[in-house]
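Consider the following assembly input.
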Amino acid sequence: MLEILISLLALAVGAGFIGAISGLGGGVFIVPALVIFAHMPMQVAIGASLISVVATSAGASVAFVRDGWTNLRVAMVLECATVTGAVIGAYLAGVVPTIVLELLFAAMMLQSAYFTITKKGDDILTKGDPLAEWLGLGGEVPDETGKLVHYEVTKIPQGGALMVVAGLMSGLLGIGSGALKVMAMDYIMHVPLKVSSATSNFMIGVTAGAGALVFLARGDVATTIAAPVAIGVTVGALAGSRVLAHLKVESLRIVFVIILLLIAAEMGWRAMSGI
Amino acid sequence: MAKQEEDRILRVWTPILLRTILITAMIVLVTGLVLTYTYAPGYYVERYNAVHEGHLIGKETLGALSERMREGNPHAILTIGLFVLTLVPLARVAFCFLLFIRERDYTYVAFTAYVLAGLIVGVLVGSAG
């Protein structure tokens, strides 16, 4: 039993660590780690990963909340979309064939790679659209000089539609879909990157939590795997966030992109060859 | 309520809420693993191998959990630890729900209620299979 525990813990610590320093979260790496290295069935990896995503999001949230850039109102409006998607996704994960899950996973890895390459600066709006202003979604964020600037938000229906997709993918694939959430908020709704990242972290926990509850209630979480993985990912993520401050993440960006592309290729190959 | 007051409440209470549940879940999970290793390592390996072969999907229901608790099987502690972990998002949303009620911001009470209901529907959908 000890060998099994040590290997699961090692895989999970590694996945949590890379997830934290890349900013992509543990889920993106834990599913491939379990499927490729531990030879687990895809559905088992997804169940274990959903629980781990809840744990890492909670761990990272403490720092995000302390900084104070989480936009609670944007989170709540968009969570209506992600939770709906996540419950439907987690339900479908029980009936969709593995080949579809592998192909979707490969697609999400490509989207994360694209986001990692194209992450851009802020385009702050001083005037939002009427719906966003009625909902009071604006907030304040520091600019390069540290001065607080007011930002407004726009295009909630478009952002919300992408959030339903993010939720679906989260429930189906056991990932947090952080890259998709930040893209929807930053690129479409003009929420500043700092606020998008913090808000996305809060949302990831709730979205993955919704998916995890479906899996747990259905009895589809293999406790034997999920328990050590949840512990390992949390430890790895905490270590990653400690190291993050001393790392030049910019220079590592290309490494993350290569890892994501390799995972996409492996998942695509598995789907094609029927593994 | 002023925005600053809302921020202050969140900054003080969210870390306490998060840390308490996260640490509790980790203690329960580690205790479960230590007890499983001490008293039921064979059972753990047997289940691991079954999962590895793809046989155990859909077998860890709430009914199975209560049966294991009656048997005094330490495996049940691990399942409880995982359930405690999923309380983190539930507790955060519930906390926001109370905050918006206190602010009498009924638009956001409605949004938050929808999210909470979604989490509960998740349990019902899962239980129904």
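The longest strand of chain A covers residues 139-142. Ask yourself how this observation constrains the way the partners meet.
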